[in-house]
Amino acid sequence: MNNNFNFQQLFEQLTDALASIVFFAFNINGTDVPLVLVWLILGALFFTVSLGFINIRGFTHAIKLIKGNKSTGAKGEISPFQALTTALSGTVGTGNIAGVALAISLGGPGATFWMIIAGLLGMSTKFVECTLAVKYRQINADGSVSGGPMFYIKAAFDKCNLPVIGSILAIAFSIFVIFGSAGFVHVNQGFVQVETVTGFNNAWLFGAIYAALVALVIIGGIKSIAKVTSKLVPLMCAIYLFAAFAVMYVHFSEIPAAFALIVSSAFTPEAGYGGFLGVLIQGFRRAAYSNEAGIGSSPIAHAAAQTKNPISQGFVGLLEPFIDTVVICTITALVIILTGAYQVDGLDGVQFTSSAFASIFSWFPWVLMIALLLFGFSTVVSWSYYGLTGWRYIFGTGKQSTTIYKVLFCLIVSIGAVPNIMAVFNFIDSMIFLMAVPNILALYMLLPEVRRDLALYWAKQKSKVIEQVAVTSDK
User: Fold this and answer.
1) Of 95, 117, 400, 415, which residue is the least packed, with the fewest Cβ within 10 Å?
2) Alpha carbon distance 430, 432 (integer Å)
3) Strands 138-139 and 145-146
4) Pick the CATH number of 41-474 from 1.20.210.10, 3.40.50.2300, 1.20.1740.10, 1.10.10.10
């Protein structure tokens, strides 16, 4: 009898089994279509149509609200802009660099088109999520805010006289977000790039330094996180986009042809990319993984925004998928297509992107290393707050409970660069996408409220315009 108990092997088997359940796919003409992806896409389509294409007609209003920055005297901990950058820091990450390259390598240039469509549809989902997060948030005695899907999930089922089911699903969501908040992937990918570029190979030391920097930020709570992300997000986007625009400038004359290839390949893909459905799925999959519309993570950050009207923060929230997917992911795709990097054999993931930039700048791997570190760090910091919110929903908002979570989180981050923890990635991904199940369900249930609130909001905006015109004409 073998008495040796191999925990790692058992854990890998369990996580593989969990991932196969969460990412269960049905096969259509040889293409695997993940059920969770269908759940997210159908939700985005439904919300877009039900709200009269709010993603399009509300876009300019969202820009105006961001310029206004915050409502005077409104409850909350951070400005609407800081809420947006905090949420963006949780979504803009390695998926915008490596994920896009993977989508194109598997689905061809046409995957970019469907990525853009998915991003546009995801804007409507974010609008509903962020509106409800503010509407059902709780202002604590110390002025801090507790909000997110767990609160509106509970409210949705309470309204249907199903409080027990609501409590179970809210707690389940909280558990999923706690485990999903672990920053293994971003720490590990950051270490891999550092090791590749610099030769530094001490994973334990890298993890310890990374965890110490994370601790310095998250110890101050959401206000501290927001201050860092409001500076870090624009900086990291500027660094990455500057290099991308430089590549596009070199290939400027080829840009129209690249867009033509993206559109034509979206409907008449090459046989090697699995046909029309395969290209569509790859585009939607990468967009969903990148902007997290429907997952329920970003609403936690938006719940802390200083705003008097939940609808206004919904407008701010809909900008996320646009920036993350329609802008950044599309620019990454253009760089890869313009340079032809996606046609190079033997490359994978981030290597496609690195090769594309290196074709113009031999020193770009250093820039990519910095970009990946900044993207990854900001994501880890933001998700620490998401996990903390789930933790506090279950264990209370006390100082001791909060401290325990932060210590545990930093300990987990410290081992994130160690290669032998790769087995937990499937587990974390499964937790993140399990969040979408109760979240989307609650969005469906509360959508009539959002529709009514939106109608009232537009009516008030219209009356303000009429008043301003009247005042101006009197003068």
Assistant:
1) 400
2) 5
3) antiparallel
4) 1.20.1740.10
